[in-house]
Design brief:
The structure holds 2 protein chains of 2 kinds. By secondary structure, chain A is mainly beta. Chain A has no helices and 9 strands. Chain A is globular, with a radius of gyration of 13 Å. In chain B, the strands form 7 sheets. In chain B, strands 3-2-1-7-19 form a 5-stranded parallel sheet, with helices on one face. Chain B has a 5-stranded parallel sheet with strand order 9-16-10-11-12, covered by helices on one side. Chain B has a 5-stranded antiparallel sheet with strand order 21-22-25-24-23, sandwiched between helices. The chains are: A mainly beta, B alpha/beta.
Chain lengths: ~110, ~450
């Protein structure tokens, strides 16, 4: 579980990148919901935390691939592979990300 | 339409094939590609691939599942050498002819070369084979490298070579590179990146000759100097691949002339990507190659122009650890001002980059971001929104990622707000390109 920032420091419609390996992007949608996904676009080397947030979709800043924050699935080309999603909680006003285990590591 | 042939198996050709299936075409789909490779992504060739950070697997544009789902006949490693006057037959280099009802021209562009045969050690960078050959030289120890041409390919390649520890000089014939794309002020900032990256930039002089018999040893400049070189990389632009269409009835003029919906004078022949001069503009942008096929395929299947592909041009370039992003179109005389971030006294991007806006008649017509991705994206969105009322795209379905088992025609999907699709209207489709004189 990784503390990210205070909730009030992540306004609605904004995102923050945390420098884990691999890096993770945490979003707070206009609706106030929190989501975390792998930050690196499944298509090419671009940071999704710098992408365009619209509803529950984030569009990659380089190529306009879009991902559903709830599932990590790409909603359109050119991305074909999903990005991993991570659980987000708020504890004592601090946003935390619970990193999903890497594929291939023991649970 | 029972058979559609896509000539060109790179980005725009693949996107056309995807669109054909996504828009319900269930007939025979033939894809002709001159290179022996499955579709791959070119932008990383001058960057991550060249420095060894991405291998060839990472370049693939389609995986096995998707390729199977396209259900296409792939004719790879074979060049198209003609299109019959009615556009019903694609002649292949091996003597075969593919009989077809529809054609998507997606043959792209080829790297422009210096005249005459070059000695060994002289490279272009356009194809995977080009990149393999160049990388083969770059991993054999420190080299003296001269890059001819300071455009985006030249700058990215120079940046990658410097990253690998080579001694690099860039030669640009103009007083400053990238002025036509960025204007003088911002071109000067980008030119500064070479210096920041430890690369010498020589401007205002052309190349007189290459030195060396079997292997290149130097580059002789028109100002009399000779730069010693073990490797020379020629990055002087690209030429649309239209030579194979010389005997067709299509109008060719630095590209295949087509209307804004990518339709040529033959309604069952469309052109997309680097080879297409759509509505008078030929853009060698990755984004155009991925956006045009949607409209082009809609029009191909309809037999007339229903949709246009008029989105805001966008390109990006990664060089010397900076990311340059540009949207819109710069014209001489546009004024440019710094909107966010800073440019240092040395004329370099500040630590947190900058965003510059280009204005004409009081309106923003283009934006440039250097290491300022979020601000750039917002600005690019604003440009797109400002453009939206002009875009008419009735009856266009959205492409989506599909599995082989769920390929079937489907009605128009609800907009999710990220597409450039404008409201449909009942006006007549635009006239077809007048410059294409011969009808079907």
């Amino acid at each position: 579980m990784i503390p990210v920032c205070r909730l009030e420091d992540l306004p609605e419609g904004e995102s923050v990148r945390i420098a884990t390996t691999p890096p993770v992007a945490v979003f707070r949608t206009e609706g106030g919901e929190l989501y975390a996904i792998d930050d690196t676009c499944a298509h090419q080397d671009a940071s999704l935390s710098e992408g365009w947030l619209e509803g529950c979709l984030v569009e990659c800043p380089l190529h306009a691939a879009a991902f559903d924050l709830r599932t990590g699935e790409p909603t359109c080309l050119p991305a074909r592979r999903p990005v991993r999603t991570h659980r987000v909680t708020v504890e004592d006003g601090v946003v935390h990300v619970h990193l999903e285990a890497q594929e291939g590591t023991a649970a | 339409m029972r058979t559609v042939t896509v000539v060109g198996a790179s980005l725009s050709g693949l996107h056309a094939a995807r669109e054909l299936r996504a828009q319900g075409f269930d007939g025979r789909l033939v894809i002709v590609g001159e290179e022996p490779h499955r579709p791959y992504d070119r932008p990383p060739l001058s960057k991550d691939f060249l420095i060894g950070r991405a291998d060839e697997d990472r370049l693939a544009l389609a995986d096995a599942d998707e390729t199977a789902g396209l259900d296409a006949e792939w004719l790879l490693g074979v060049r198209a050498r003609g299109l019959d006057p009615r556009g019903r037959g694609v002649l292949l280099g091996d003597g075969r002819t593919v009989s077809t009802d529809g054609v998507v021209i997606a043959t792209g562009a080829a790297a422009r070369r210096l005249p005459g045969p070059g000695p060994a050690g002289v490279h272009t960078l356009r194809t995977l084979d080009d990149a393999r050959a160049l990388r083969g030289e770059l991993i054999r120890g420190p080299r003296r490298i001269v890059v001819i041409g300071g455009g985006f390919i030249g700058a990215e390649t120079a940046s990658s070579c410097a990253r690998l520890g080579h001694a690099v000089t860039v030669v640009e014939a103009a007083p400053l590179p990238l002025v036509p794309q960025l204007g003088a002020e911002m071109a000067a900032v980008c030119a500064g990146l070479h210096r920041r990256g430890g690369v010498e930039l020589i401007t205002g002089t052309g190349v007189a000759a290459l030195r060396g018999a079997a292997t290149v040893t130097g580059v002789e400049l028109t100002d009399g100097r000779t730069l010693p070189a073990d490797v020379v990389i020629v990055g002087i632009g690209a030429v649309p691949d239209t030579a194979w269409l010389a005997g067709s009835t299509l109008a060719l003029q630095d590209g295949v002339l087509c209307d804004e919906g990518c339709v040529t004078a033959l309604p069952q022949v469309v052109a997309v990507g680097d080879v297409a001069r759509a509505g008078g503009i030929r853009a060698e942008h990755w984004t155009s190659a991925t956006e045009q096929p949607r409209a082009a395929v809609t029009n191909l299947l309809a037999g007339r122009t229903l949709a246009t592909a008029r989105t805001v041009p966008y390109f990006w370039s990664d060089q010397y650890d900076s990311r340059i992003q540009f949207a819109g179109r710069y014209r001489e005389g546009d004024t440019v001002h710094l909107a966010e971030g800073e440019i240092t006294d040395d004329g370099l991007p500040g630590e947190s980059g900058f965003l510059a806006r280009y204005a004409r008649d009081g309106r923003t017509v283009a934006v440039l971001g250097v290491d300022r991705p979020r601000a750039f994206m917002r600005a690019r969105r604003e440009l797109q929104r400002a453009r939206q009322p002009e875009v008419r795209r009735p009856e266009v379905r959205r492409p989506e990622v599909r599995r082989p088992e769920d390929r079937r025609p489907e009605g128009r999907r609800a907009e999710d707000g990220r597409s450039a699709d404008g409201p449909s209207d009942d006006r007549q489709p635009p006239e077809r390109q007048e410059a294409a004189p011969v009808g079907p």
